[in-house]
Specification:
The chain is α+β, with helices and mostly antiparallel strands. 24% of the residues lie in helices and 27% in strands.
Length: 113
Amino acid sequence: MSIVKINALTVPAEQREVLEQRFASRAGAVEGSDGFEWFELLRPVEGTDQYLVYTRWRSEEDFQAWMEGPMKAAHQDGAAGGGAAGGDRPKPAATGSTVWSFEVVQQTGPKQA
């Protein structure tokens, strides 16, 4: 079964649009990675300032390979954050980040008619 990684990002209200724009501008950056299965950016509706970045992977090894390769490279050169010319890195939109890891032990989808 797959593994799930959820990155809980604390995002102040004034940075929400910036965060969403940064994720939109990097659309497609993870989809071609070996073992990648799913991505969702979840906006908080009420009671919290935490966005959830949900990704599902075929295995922990596939996730780690992405972390050490494409993700690391994107964050080092500022590409994931929409870096400015000359290597200047924009201020992070999130003020905190916690990664949760889960193994999928059961799953289901909609019933087929």
